[in-house]
Write a structure and sequence with these properties.
Length: 266
């Protein structure tokens, strides 16, 4: 029973909370009594998420419009959160997007935008919120990476690059913040059935080919919330993809061949 209510009364700030995995994490945290602070660019969706979190928690929930690529907006929103809500206990960096395209055909603007959101925005939140956590000597940062950050595949060079960056940054951050009582968890999911693929895979062919290996966002969110305020290092799923990533490290040439041929679903 104690495990189920570890986040009760704790302030959980989530980026990218207007849809997809971030939205489901908000609901899973609210069900356990957390004070959810939902942030995203889509204000109209945020209001609905905020209301649902209030219903689930039976308490308060907050929503703030936030573009993680805007430095000044990040600082301003975090100041408001500090005044309106209080110190953040758990930060979940879930904002991000991808696009399936061959590396040489990916436009500069798409590449820059993806790194701005997936990497630089995440780093910005970690630095700002992590700095406050360090002063208090406690806290938990959860960064949503991807199995693409372990095994790159064709037509996802830029996206994989951003997620490799998230994993590298998170690993170093974990080592640096441990002495201050702050945990850093990296979440490496495979494909999740969310609106992420409305942009990354408009015709839906990728998800159709993967079939039963596509993850349920609610289930992933439950695992993330169960890890909150623990020292868990990584969450890796589904297990066949994680097993494949480990196989790749041991047998890289064979891994290249299989990824380019048998396991190329894009």
């Amino acid at each position: 029973m104690q495990r189920a209510h570890r986040v009760r009364g704790k302030v959980v700030l989530i980026t990218g909370a207007s849809g997809g995995l971030g939205e489901q994490v908000a609901y899973a945290a609210a069900k356990r009594g957390a004070v959810v602070v939902a942030t995203a660019r889509r204000v109209e969706r945020l209001q609905a998420v905020q209301e649902r979190c209030r219903e689930l928690s039976g308490g308060t929930a907050y929503a703030y419009a936030l573009d993680v690529t805007d430095r000044q907006q990040v600082k301003g929103v975090l100041q408001r959160v500090g005044t309106d809500v209080g110190p953040v206990d758990v930060l979940v960096n879930s904002a991000g997007f991808g696009l399936f395209a061959e590396a040489l055909d990916t436009a500069d603007q798409v590449t820059e935008d993806m790194f701005q959101v997936n990497v630089l925005g995440l780093i910005r939140l970690c630095r700002e919120v992590g700095g406050e956590m360090r002063k208090r000597g406690r806290g938990h940062i959860i960064n949503i990476a991807s199995q693409a950050g372990k095994t790159a595949t064709p037509k996802s060079a830029v996206y994989a690059g951003t997620k490799f960056a998230v994993r590298g940054y998170s690993n170093a951050l974990r080592l640096e913040l441990k002495q201050y009582g702050i945990s850093v968890t990296t979440v490496n999911p495979g494909p999740i059935r969310t609106d992420f693929f409305a942009k990354a895979d408009p015709d839906g062919s990728y998800l159709a080919k993967l079939g039963r290996w596509v993850l349920d966002p609610g289930r992933v969110a439950e695992l993330i919330v169960e890890s909150m305020l623990t020292n868990r290092r990584e969450i890796n799923l589904p297990w066949p993809m994680e097993l494949g990533a480990r196989f790749y490290v041991l047998f890289p040439r064979l891994g290249d061949f299989l990824t380019r041929t048998l396991f190329n679903f894009k």
